[in-house]
Write a structure and sequence with these properties.
This protein is of the alpha/beta class. The protein is built from 12 helices and 10 strands. Helix 4 links the parallel strand 4 and strand 5. The relative contact order is 0.10.
């Protein structure tokens, strides 16, 4: 699944939901947590349920983020979503495997879980979370960098070097558990250079894509997390070389003065699929 961009939208905003159907983000996340005021939680939940039922988002996954499991709204959120079965349910502030197990027990089987890793306890539990991913039906880890920075008492904006090793841990855990890894949001709405830099860094760290808070961030995420022409050309050369009759059965070949193995072929095929080219 290609998930370069996952756009957060407040579930309580019908205009935003309608607009999301026309956008080209790779995923849409309807938010019942931070973006919805306490007195609008019930209305937001009903709007999210209606959006899932009505569809109109094409092949893109429609994900719903619930309120935290320790809040008074979470049980109703999960019960409502169990009835309509969105593409995934995003659980905020996942501290440990029992948090995910609680969500799974309430949600029931079948609907994939995504986990927001945005607490210090969540970071310390990443190994256990990765090991339990298949058992609890967890398919994605999302870096919640804003809440993590707050809990760590970092200055605002947080220094990148403070969060970088933690983001790498999220990627490692995602790969160990066979999951998607999505980087945290960029809070700056009118700083395209900063957004581009964050997307480029996120890809260098191994993230599949980035969570977004505004539609004007979609194009930057697609550029930042999509392969460029140089990478596509590299991938084509490898695929073509391994397709040669005298090299098709080899485990490693010489190409452009370098030793290229079948693990590079797998990566080349992934890049071409991501780019939508052959």
């Amino acid at each position: 699944m290609t998930l370069r961009s996952a756009l957060f939208l407040p579930a309580s905003n019908p205009r935003a939901i309608a607009k999301a159907r026309t956008l080209d983000s790779d995923a849409v996340i309807l938010d019942l947590e931070d973006a919805v005021a306490p007195d609008a939680k019930a209305a937001g939940r009903e709007a999210a349920v209606t959006a899932v039922r009505e569809g109109g988002f094409g092949d893109r996954p429609l994900v719903v983020r619930t309120n935290g499991l320790d809040t008074r709204w979470a049980a109703d959120d999960l019960a409502a979503l169990a009835a309509v079965r969105p593409a995934a349910v995003l659980i905020p502030k996942v501290d440990d495997v029992p948090t995910l197990a609680r969500a799974r027990a309430t949600l029931g089987p079948g609907v994939p879980l995504w986990a927001m890793i945005e607490t210090c306890r969540g970071i310390l539990s990443l190994g256990a979370i990765a090991q339990a991913a298949r058992e609890v039906g967890l398919t994605a880890l999302v870096a919640g960098t804003n809440d993590l920075a707050k809990e760590m008492r970092l200055p605002s904006p947080p220094p990148p070097e403070a969060l970088l090793p933690l983001r790498v841990q999220i990627v490692v855990a995602a790969r160990a558990g066979g999951m998607i890894a999505l980087d945290g949001v960029c809070n700056a709405l009118d700083a395209p250079e900063r957004l581009a830099a964050e997307c480029a860094e996120g890809r260098r760290l191994g993230f599949d894509g980035k969570t977004l808070i505004h539609p004007n961030q979609i194009d930057a995420a697609h550029r930042g997390f999509g392969p460029d022409e140089r990478e596509i050309a590299w991938a084509r050369r490898i695929v073509t070389a391994f397709a040669e009759p005298d090299q098709a059965a080899l485990g490693a070949i010489r190409l452009d003065g370098q030793m290229v193995e079948r693990l590079h072929l797998i990566e080349a095929e992934r890049i071409l699929a991501l780019a939508g080219v052959v």
